[in-house]
Design brief:
Dna Ligase, domain 1, 28% strand, 9 strands, 178 residues, alpha+beta, five-stranded antiparallel β-sheet
């Protein structure tokens, strides 16, 4: 079932991107398991480099709809120039299905570091209206927990070594399909 789910989720993501690029509506997928609410991220690569990544931290839409929405958003990721149409078929697509978030009861950077599982945990950092996440895949590029948290704080527009009593940290796991 997992292999079949992955194949279907990747097909939904790719078709959403291709159909949007061509100005068409994506085909409807109607398996019952696709109607369950889920949080996903879609990551796009081109020639091995990141080309877009967008997702949902909370399950607000049906799984199939969330993948379709996030695939389209990732293909328009504003961090990158518009993708030439002839490059769309060359995109690498990865779908990450997120588990529910688990708040970590931490009061210091050292506690946060001690509770994280490098290579396994996706991490969400929140401070007031500021929020950022790194998928577990980011550990491949930032394997040291301190560097991981430092860059995550910077992504949230906070100083790299910022800590405050109101800083919230949570983690999640992913099932990824490539």
């Amino acid at each position: 079932m997992a292999d079949d789910r992955g194949r279907v989720l990747l097909a939904i993501a790719r078709e959403a991107i291709v159909h949007e690029d061509q100005g068409l509506d994506a085909p409807a997928w109607d398996a019952p398991w696709l109607r369950a609410r889920a949080a996903t991220f879609v990551t796009l690569t081109l020639d091995g480099d990141l080309r877009g990544c967008m997702g949902s931290l909370e399950p607000r839409r049906a799984l199939g709809e969330d993948v379709m929405h996030n695939a389209r958003a990732a293909s328009r990721d504003s961090r990158f120039p518009p993708l030439p149409r002839h490059r769309v078929p060359h995109l690498g697509v990865e779908v990450s299905l997120l588990s529910p978030r688990e708040p970590l009861p931490v009061t210091s950077e050292d506690e946060a570091i001690s509770m994280l599982c490098p290579g396994v945990d996706g991490v969400v950092l929140e401070y007031g209206p500021l929020c950022a996440t790194f998928l577990p895949q980011v550990w491949e590029h930032l394997p040291e927990p301190l560097a991981f948290l430092t860059e995550l704080r910077r992504k949230a527009n906070l100083p790299g070594r910022f800590w405050h009593a109101e800083l919230r940290v949570s983690r999640y796991r992913v099932e990824k399909f490539k």
